């Protein structure tokens, strides 16, 4: 009795404290930080977990794997829903090149550094996939509050952030197919497993479309989507496939074939936050020690930062070659924040690597550091408090479509 | 076309589980497959039910029955154990809604009617159904050869079970019809009061029945523990409600999530201690609604947001727990039991409502709101089975068969009552589906 009440009290205290901190940050520093919120939920998870009040002991966490599988499938779905082929087709070729090259460069750099640091190949690829992810959410949140110093830079950062999700999931899904723990589908070869994930997603994506045909109500769409995604996540779990990859494939089908894509997107968004928060709390509750793999932490923070800085220089040059002046040499640091997809990859990582290993803790710390540092850079350099509308160069891609 | 896709998906899920080595290989994945099929199936069955002007939850229950472990087996007993968390969560949200719908002012205004109907139900239905069951057992030996004392115990226990209602079904139909008015408030209020009374009544009669069967004396002291349990549940629920209200007033962020978390905490309290999960959540909802009127609308909106998937999951899982084979085996005694109960409900609702000066819709139609039975009755049946040996097992089977009948007919009757009274603001089939 006491544990449940304490947990609830703690949640209320965390939420009130988090709201106060956010208010303070907004007033004093001019920034609002979702990192504080995410950190609050992580801390809450630690408090509720086996190391805290024990509301989520190990055996309960095992039964909560249902939520984890569903959350991973949902995060994959959200990434897939961003891949609107109609919009992507309208992009210029150099946008494509930049959007795909930057995440791959960062991933390659991080994988190489991890290998040099002596980490095993599965860990190197997993860290590379996590490092590839950049979230445009922090940037979009700041853009709602004040104008950037350079709109072209902001748009390019959003483009790269939006395009980074799918390659990261694909790399992670391939690595998962090769190295994941033996599952019931272990008789299948790695390429068969890698193929089955997207195939399952495509089938379920079409099935969800058929089931939602004629439905316009938000709650009805959400209910069908929830049912469809539960089947997808369950099938992924039973077959040992990546729910992220399958979810992303379903998302791509749904957004490109639906007659009401915006309604489905809104329905999917409405459950995204609760599931991400549930995952954050569960990640915190899975924390089982203070052991930290320092090499992985350095790779994910320092090496990723250097790789992003280098990629930013390349970005500036390519943009300048096409007549777009960015005026921010360190623009790559705007890609530091990592959103819920990185969190999803971290949770998926627990299928290969137990949460008790130092790698898990290192990734959690790295995600928090990257989020805070990235937001700080964006708030200081791209969205300073007193900035006016950015310079508008003739080659600026302001009127161009973006994903 | 949608049904074709659903059947294909269900077949695919079944095949995957067979190919994938069954439930043991990945219990979580298997449970999710079952949950997904239940949700999608429930949505389609709800649409179909709307077409026949039936409540959505009748569709949810039927699809749950068909897919459950007692029929097609797409959801197994092992899945149900893992999905218990979702069931408890859904029940908590439904109980929060029930508490949130109750206004203190309304309770004060209708106190006389509420207490009259509750008292009449408690005594009248218990005595009438108990006596009828005693007669039935004299004529039809459905429980096998039993002694006079065992017959008396069985009659008393079936009489108590007949008093129980399903507040969850009442709330679900009210939410679906978006009903407001005297009839709605009276039936909801009585359902909640009866839930409180049932806990006391069952504990006492169960102890009495056991003493008749096994010997010994029973005094009112057995009620001490359950009285404390109810009191503590109400106090803890009010405290949680105060916290939730303070949170919604002071912070207000993630209202839906906080409400869900409160339902989870209440479920955890119910499991880890002797508190009554349903009462804790109801008291919390009641506290938020009446102590924080400025956030009450947002609170109810947050609950309404989650209502469709919650009802689909909860009632499909309830349907899955109902065994149609039991009904097939015991259809005659079950129908006699359910029929007697129905008659007693009709009589002991109309008479006290009329005497207490309730409005015409309440006098004429309120009885239709007390027919449904679900989780509480099934839980009590399981307890009888556990505690009363062979006689308990036979009684539990009869109770489950009667619950199947009551749960299938109850929501339909209640929806009709709301429509006829004019309190249902959303009565067309398509409107209901949307």
Topology:
The complex is a heterodimer of chains A (403) and B (434).
Chain A lengths: L1 H27 L5 H15 L9 H6 L1 H17 L3 H5 L3 H24 L4 H12 L4 H9 L5 H29 L10 H23 L5 H22 L3 H15 L3 H26 L7 H28 L18 H10 L8 H25 L21
Chain B lengths: L1 H18 L7 H25 L4 H12 L9 H6 L1 H18 L2 H6 L1 H29 L8 H16 L3 H11 L4 H33 L7 H29 L4 H18 L4 H15 L1 H13 L1 H15 L2 H6 L1 H25 L4 H6 L9 H13 L1 H33 L7 H5 L1
Helix pairs in contact in B: 1-2, 2-3, 2-15, 3-15, 3-20, 5-9, 5-12, 5-13, 5-14, 5-15, 7-8, 7-10, 7-17, 8-10, 8-20, 9-10, 9-20, 10-11, 11-12, 11-13, 12-13, 13-14, 17-20, 19-20
**By helix and strand content of chain B, what is the structural category?**
mainly alpha
The helix tally of chain B amounts to 21
Sketch the major β-sheet of chain A. Answer: none
The helix/strand class of chain A is mainly alpha
Mean pLDDT, all residues of chain A: 79
**CA-to-CA gap between the ends of chain A?**
49 Å
CATH architecture of chain A: Up-down Bundle
Poorly predicted runs of chain A are: 387-403
CATH topology of the largest domain in chain B: Na+/H+ antiporter like fold
Of all protein chain pairs, which has the greatest interface, and how many residues does each chain bring to it?
Answer: A-B, 55 and 65 residues
Which bin fits the share of residues in helices of chain B? over 70%
Mass-distribution shape of chain A: globular
Instruction: Provide the CATH topology of chain A.
Output: Na+/H+ antiporter like fold
The best one-word shape of chain B is globular
| Mean pLDDT across all amino acids of chain B | 80
Summarize the biggest pleated sheet of chain B: none
Taking the alpha carbons of the first and last residues of chain B, their distance comes to: 19 Å
Fraction of residues in H or I helices of chain A: over 70%
H and E order of chain A: HHHHHHHHHHHHHHHH
Second-tier CATH architecture of the largest domain in chain B: Up-down Bundle
């Amino acid at each position: 009795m006491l544990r449940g009440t304490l947990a609830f009290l703690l949640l209320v205290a965390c939420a009130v404290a988090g709201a106060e901190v956010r208010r303070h940050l907004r007033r004093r520093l001019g920034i609002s930080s979702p990192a504080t919120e995410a950190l609050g939920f992580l801390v809450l998870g630690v408090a509720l977990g086996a190391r805290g009040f024990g509301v989520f002991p190990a055996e309960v966490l095992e039964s909560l794997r249902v939520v984890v599988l569903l959350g991973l499938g949902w995060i994959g779905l959200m990434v897939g829903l961003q891949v609107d082929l109609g919009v992507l087709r309208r992009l210029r070729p150099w946008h494509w090149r930049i959007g795909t090259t930057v995440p791959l460069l960062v991933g390659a750099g991080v994988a190489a550094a991890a290998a040099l640091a002596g980490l095993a190949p599965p860990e190197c690829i997993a860290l590379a996939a996590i490092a590839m992810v950049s979230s445009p959410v922090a940037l979009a949140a700041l853009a709602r509050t004040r104008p950037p110093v350079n709109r072209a830079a902001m748009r390019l950062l959003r483009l790269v952030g939006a395009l980074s999700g799918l390659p990261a999931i694909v790399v992670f899904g391939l690595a998962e197919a090769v190295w994941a723990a033996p599952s019931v589908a272990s008789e299948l070869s790695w390429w068969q497993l890698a193929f089955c994930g997207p195939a399952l997603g495509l089938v379920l994506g079409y099935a969800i479309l058929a089931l939602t045909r004629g439905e316009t109500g938000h709650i009805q769409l959400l209910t069908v989507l929830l049912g469809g995604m539960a089947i997808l996540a369950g099938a992924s779990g039973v077959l040992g496939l990546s729910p992220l990859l399958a979810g992303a494939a379903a998302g791509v089908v749904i957004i490109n074939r639906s007659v009401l894509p915006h309604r489905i997107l809104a329905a999917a968004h409405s459950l995204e936050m609760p599931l991400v928060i549930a995952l954050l709390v569960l990640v915190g509750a899975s924390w089982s020690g203070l052991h930290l793999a320092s090499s992985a932490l350095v790779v994910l923070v320092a090496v990723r930062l250097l790789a992003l800085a280098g990629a930013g220089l390349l970005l500036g040059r390519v943009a300048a070659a096409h007549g777009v002046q960015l005026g921010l040499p360190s623009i790559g640091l705007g890609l530091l924040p990592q959103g819920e997809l990185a969190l999803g990859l971290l949770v998926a990582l627990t299928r290969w690597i137990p949460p008790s290993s130092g790698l898990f803790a290192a990734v959690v710390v790295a995600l928090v550091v990257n989020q805070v540092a990235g937001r700080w850079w964006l708030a200081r350099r791209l969205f300073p408090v007193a900035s006016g509308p950015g310079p508008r160069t003739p080659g600026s891609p302001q009127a161009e479509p973006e994903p | 076309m949608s049904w074709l896709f659903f059947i294909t998906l269900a077949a695919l899920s079944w095949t995957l589980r067979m190919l994938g080595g069954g439930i043991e290989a990945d219990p979580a994945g298997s449970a999710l497959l079952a949950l997904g099929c239940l949700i999608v199936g429930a949505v389609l069955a709800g649409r179909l039910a709307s077409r026949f002007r039936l409540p959505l939850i009748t569709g949810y229950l039927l699809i749950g029955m068909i897919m459950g472990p007692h029929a097609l087996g797409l959801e197994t007993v092992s899945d149900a154990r893992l999905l218990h968390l979702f069931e408890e969560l859904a029940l908590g949200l439904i109980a929060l809604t029930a508490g949130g719908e109750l206004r203190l002012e309304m309770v004060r205004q209708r106190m006389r009617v509420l207490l009259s109907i509750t008292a009449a139900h408690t005594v009248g239905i218990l005595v009438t159904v108990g006596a009828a069951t005693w007669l039935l057992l004299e004529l039809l030996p459905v429980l096998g050869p039993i002694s006079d004392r065992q017959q008396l115990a069985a009659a008393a226990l079936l009489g108590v079970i007949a008093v129980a209602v399903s507040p969850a079904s009442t709330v679900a139909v009210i939410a679906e019809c978006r009903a407001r008015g005297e009839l709605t408030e009276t039936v909801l209020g009585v359902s909640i009061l009866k839930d409180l009374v049932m806990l006391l009544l069952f504990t006492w009669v169960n102890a009495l029945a056991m003493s008749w069967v096994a010997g010994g004396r029973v005094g009112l002291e057995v009620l001490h523990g359950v009285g404390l349990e109810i009191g503590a549940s109400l106090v803890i629920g009010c405290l949680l409600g105060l916290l939730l209200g303070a949170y919604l007033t002071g912070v207000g962020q993630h209202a839906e999530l906080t409400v869900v978390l409160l339902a989870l905490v209440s479920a955890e309290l119910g499991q880890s201690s002797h508190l009554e999960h349903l009462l804790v959540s109801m008291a919390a909802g009641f506290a938020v609604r009446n102590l924080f009127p400025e956030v009450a609308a947002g609170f109810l909106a947050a609950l309404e947001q989650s209502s469709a998937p919650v009802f689909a999951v909860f009632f499909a899982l309830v349907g899955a727990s109902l065994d149609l084979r039991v009904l097939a085996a015991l259809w005659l005694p079950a129908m006699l039991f359910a029929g007697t109960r129905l008659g007693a409900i009709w009589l002991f609702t109309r008479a006290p409502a009329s005497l207490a000066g309730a409005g015409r819709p309440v006098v004429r139609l309120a009885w239709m709101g007390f027919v449904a039975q679900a989780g509480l009755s099934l839980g009590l049946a399981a307890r009888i089975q556990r505690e009363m040996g062979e006689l308990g097992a036979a009684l539990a089977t009869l109770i489950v068969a009667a619950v199947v009948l009551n749960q299938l007919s109850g929501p339909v009757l209640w929806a009709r009552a709301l429509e006829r009274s004019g309190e249902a603001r959303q009565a067309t089939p398509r409107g209901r589906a949307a």
